[in-house]
Amino acid sequence: MSFSGKYQLESQENFEPFMKAIGLPDELIQKGKDIKSISEIEENGDNFKVTVTTGSKVLVNTFTLGKEAELETLTGEKVKGVVQRDGNKLKVSLKGIESVTELVDGNTIVNTMTLGGIVYKRTSKRM
């Protein structure tokens, strides 16, 4: 199954505690909590481009599976990481955050980010 497509955020769990834990200011947390972000994934072999648009903020990451890439985090910081594919899951560890993006079926993506004991879960549907 290909990850390629556009997905809109449908639901999320633990947004506020997770964003506080990674150091996002309260003002940005309040602004962002109700925005239905749109994720666009382009998959070409082992090469990926992921664009996440949340209101006026656009986050773009490009990477090749299994190779080190510079990735922008939710706080805007750029860190190096290696994205691995495990079946229908993309996994990466950035600054203590374990991120797993799973293609649950042809139309649903679930992204889970774990930091310490906080699990932030986002479910998005294909548009």
Automatic annotation (TrEMBL):
Which coarse location class describes where this protein primarily resides? Answer: cytoplasm
Q: Which UniProt keywords apply?
A: Cytoplasm, Lipid-binding, Transport
An example Pfam family from this entry, by short name, is Lipocalin_7
InterPro entries, alphabetically?
Calycin, Fatty_acid-bd, ILBP
Which ranges carry the Cytosolic fatty-acid binding proteins domain? 5-22
Query: TM spans, by residue?
Result: none
**Which subcellular locations apply to this protein?**
Cytoplasm
Q: Gene3D superfamilies recorded for this chain?
A: 2.40.128.20
One GO-annotated biological process of the protein: fatty acid transport
**Leader sequence segment:** none
Q: Name one GO cellular component term.
A: cytoplasm
Question: A Gene Ontology molecular-function term?
Answer: fatty acid binding
PROSITE patterns, per the entry? FABP
Top-level taxonomic group: Eukaryota
Asked if the keyword Mitochondrion belongs to this entry, the reply reads: no
Q: What is known of its domains?
A: Forms a beta-barrel structure that accommodates hydrophobic ligands in its interior.
The protein's role, per its UniProt record: Binds free fatty acids and their coenzyme A derivatives, bilirubin, and some other small molecules in the cytoplasm. Involved in intracellular lipid transport.
Protein's recorded name? Fatty acid-binding protein, liver
Q: Which organism is it from?
A: Collichthys lucidus
